[in-house]
Amino acid sequence: MKKKRILSALLTSVMVGVLVLSGCGGNNKEESKSENEGGEKKYKIGFANSSVSNSWRVTMRDMLMEEAENLGVEIVETDAGDDADTLNSNIETMLQEDLDAILITPVDASQNNPGIETAYDAGIPVIIFDRLCTTDKYTHFIGWPDSVNGAACAQMIVDALTEKNGEPKGNIVALDSMAGSGTDVGQKEGQESVFSKYPDIKIIDRQYTDFDETKGKEIMADWLTAYGKGEIDMVISQDGGVTLGAYDAIKEAGREDDGILFVNADGINGVLEMVKDGTAYGLTEFPCQVSKLALQLAIDCIEGKDPADKDVIQEAIVVTKDNVDEYYDPDGDTFDWTY
Predict the structure, then answer these.
(1) DSSP assignment of 92-121, as one string?
(2) DSSP class of 41
(3) Structure-derived torsion over alpha carbons of residues 129, 296, 65, 110, reported in degrees to the nearest 10
(4) Fewest CB atoms less than 10 Å from the CB: which of 19, 49, 215, 240?
């Protein structure tokens, strides 16, 4: 019940924003689209997905497909397997369908501009979500930009180090995601916007993990070999599975007493449990349910009810020990996405 109440509130907050009407980029097919039997509108919407290569993306995709079924929307879906060129090709192929709108999650912030621009030039609403792009030829972006979440994570690092050391100073290591991805670019941009104000907070090492738990564990094990007790204060991570792998390395090395704290940029149940037991200071939620919001925004665009703002930005959802029980599922599995 709690999850349903949270989603209801989330959808309500977005719908308040979308009641402000403006002209929609792309064609408005409300009048030309025929109604199916029973009078219910039926839309065909493309979904050019960057991949289903991690648990967040699988859950996000499943939520989208379930919502589309509930709304009577046909989804034309492709999976680029985390390859930017494939995503561009998939978009071009999908445009041969009679689409009313298209949802796109870019693989790369700039390399997917050609595909996004082709869709926009086709005259249908183009909704970007999950990751940003660098072209302005799209109809709307909706979601929690990684730069917003990156800044919120960095601020938690500042707060935690201030509590630990009496002032904002200390050494941190960074478990980054995938080179060139919008996730990594945005997270680093957000982190830098905060860390640049605190010269005594040092990032002493950072490595890419490709969202891979095993890589996170291996990298952390290497760091524990390279740095002794007290030389690492905190870890800032862009992925929940990676965080769990890294903490496994700490436990296997017998270094739990080092007091290394984690801050994480997403909210799988296992990391929420780390917040509860004090091994993680906090995290930002990156809701899988953004796919539902993107679908609703596409429908609003088709019907001429899209928002005035091109970018529908959501505020960072910060989870610490003070509010973790609102998101933690005691009956859930470690890798469940609860929001």
Answers:
(1) HHHTTS--SEEEE--SSTTTTHHHHHHHHH
(2) B
(3) -20
(4) 19
Q: CA-to-CA distance for 22 and 270, rounded, in angstroms?
A: 42
Contact 77, 52 (CB under 8 A): no
| Model pTM score | 0.73
Q: How far is 330 from 309, CA to CA, in rounded Å?
A: 38
d(CA 3, CA 9) in angstroms, rounded, equals: 10
The backbone torsions φ and ψ at residue 4, rounded to the nearest 5 degrees and listed phi first, read -65, -40
Secondary structure E strands in 265-315: 280-285, 311-313
Half-sphere exposure of 307 (CA within 13 A, CB side): 19
Domains delineated in the chain: 16-142+288-308 (3.40.50.2300), 146-285 (3.40.50.2300)
Handedness of CA 50, 52, 53, 54 (dihedral sign): positive
User: Quick one: tokens of 173?
Assistant: 């290591």
CA distance 170 to 249: 21
pLDDT tens string 124-158: 999 999 888 999 999 999 998 889 999 999 999 99
